[in-house]
Amino acid sequence: MGSLAGLLRARGYEVTGSDTGVYPPMSTALARWGIPVAEGFAAEHVLARRPDLVVIGNAVRPDNPEARAALDAELSVMSFPDALYEHAIRGRHSVVVAGTHGKTTTTSLVATLLHETGRDPSFLVGGIAANFDGSFREGKGEHFVVEGDEYDTVFFDKTPKFLHYHARTLLLTSVEFDHADIYRDLEHVKSAFRTLVAGLPAEGALVAALGASNVAEIAARAPCRVVGYGAGAAAEEARVHWLGRRLDPDPTGTHFELVVEGEPRGRTFVPAHGRFNVENAVGALAVLDVLGVPLEESMGVLPRFRGVKRRQEVRGEAGGVTVLDDFAHHPTAVRETLAGLRARFAGRPLVAVFEPRSNTSRRTVFQRDYAAAFDAADRIVVAAVPAAPVYSATGEVTELFSAEQLAADLRARGKDAVAIDGVPAIVERLGETCAPGDVVVTLSNGGFGGIWDALLARLAKA
After folding, report:
1. d(Cα 196, Cα 52) in Å, to the nearest integer?
2. Which residues, in sequence order, are CB contacts of 396 under 8 Å at separation 6+?
3. How far apart are CA 80 and CA 152, in angstroms?
4. How would you write 258-274 as a 3-class SS string?
5. Burial of 121 (0-12, 13-18, 19+ CB in 10 A)
């Protein structure tokens, strides 16, 4: 929503918005773009000047006073994905990046490679792409690259958002259970991705991580060309067309060999860490090949990728302790992120601070899976689960995830792990236990109470 607001503002529209609890980096980006955001919702926000268009996001419920006022007043109303398609994507070659994990990074990679090779793309992503210092761009080229989310569209349209972008080229990173508030189980998730893939045009292309769980099954539904990609043992076993192998990390990123259709095409470098980020890079290179960009060009500019905010982002260093921030919250993302950081900071103690904030992570569905997700960390702090309600796609009351149980399970695996309630107490604990050389990474899909600045200030006093 914030990215769409910025895109429309850049086109000269007057844009305002309403939300609760807006946090960086999007809050600061909105301020920089000159978009005022009202805290909280009130009917007068949409009735005072009767806007030409009211865009309603999927976090808004039917009883929202602004949504109700807009509908009752018969204002022009659209969902976020429909507004994006109608006002930005229509008439362009729609390149959609979908999957449970890696969407934001891979969307940013594809957009960066197209831009750096002179194709002048447009894009919109659910994060801040460092190469553009923003989450959107409007170019003059034929391609629009968009992050395709499987979450539902809006309260009056429960179809997945990614169906509204009419993909011509689709990159599929992964298919796992997530978003337990709208999906009943893994089969329900897979059905959404099947619909997405089956809707591709015959002249389109699917670039798919065929070594990832469930992806090959979904890709089999494609009515168009399928290009497999990946990195690591599972990808090699799946005999993908585009393979990253012989990974060699250093402090600045990862060197790897690219193999296309069984033919080595040389070594290249991505300024990111972890097998999953190499896989994202390989997928992006494959997409550019599908779009007609010579491999020599795309490989040559890959080292220019600067990443995405809140993806292994260094927030600062104090007292000899490096503090990073990452968006990871699903067990798979937590495991892969920590593995990447272990390679990046080899030999340094790694401290993971996990906030189970998403609807899915606050249920018991991944309680056991999380215990194995922190193996690469030396010490773990688990934030207590918030008391807010947890919604379920089945409408059933579900048991809540237990931070104390996860800490106990981690200790049973030989880890130094504690569960702590509240950011001030977590910061104090880290201030007392961290030593020069430690690396601390926070893992949360929210603002985590502004923990980074507070932690850096506390470490500076140690």
Report:
1. 31
2. none
3. 11
4. EEECCEEEEEEEECCCC
5. buried
**Cα 314 to Cα 317: distance, rounded to the nearest angstrom:** 8
109: its two tokens: 């990679």
Q: How far apart are CA 334 and CA 373, in angstroms?
A: 6
Checking DSSP bridges between strand 263-270 and strand 313-318, what pairing results, if any?
unpaired
Ordered per-residue pLDDT tens for the chain, 462 residues: 999 999 999 989 999 999 998 887 788 889 999 999 999 999 999 999 999 999 999 989 999 999 999 999 999 999 999 999 999 999 999 999 999 999 999 999 999 999 999 999 999 998 889 999 989 999 999 999 999 999 999 999 999 999 999 999 999 999 999 988 889 999 999 999 999 999 999 999 999 999 999 999 999 999 999 999 999 999 999 999 999 999 999 999 999 999 999 999 999 999 999 999 999 999 999 999 999 999 999 999 999 999 998 899 999 999 999 999 999 889 999 999 999 999 999 999 999 999 988 777 877 888 899 999 999 999 999 998 766 656 655 666 567 888 999 999 999 999 999 999 999 999 999 999 999 999 999 999 888 888 999 999 999 987
Facing residues of 419 across strands? 382
Distance CA 225, CA 236 (A): 20
Coil, helix or strand at residue 143: strand
Helices (H), 199-328: 215-219, 233-237, 275-290, 295-301
CA-to-CA distance for 263 and 260, rounded, in angstroms?
5
Please state, in angstroms and rounded to a whole number, the distance separating the CA atoms of residues 357 and 359.
7
Rounded Cα distance between 462 and 458, Å, is 7
Task: Give me the residue label for tokens 């929210």.
Answer: 446
For residues 131 and 118, give the distance between their C-alpha atoms in angstroms, rounded to a whole number.
Answer: 14
The neighbouring-strand residues paired with 353 are 381, 442
* Structure token digits, residue 273: 């860490």
Contact 219, 226 (CB under 8 A): yes
Query: Could you tell me if 179 and 359 are in contact, meaning their C-beta atoms sit under 8 angstroms apart?
Result: yes
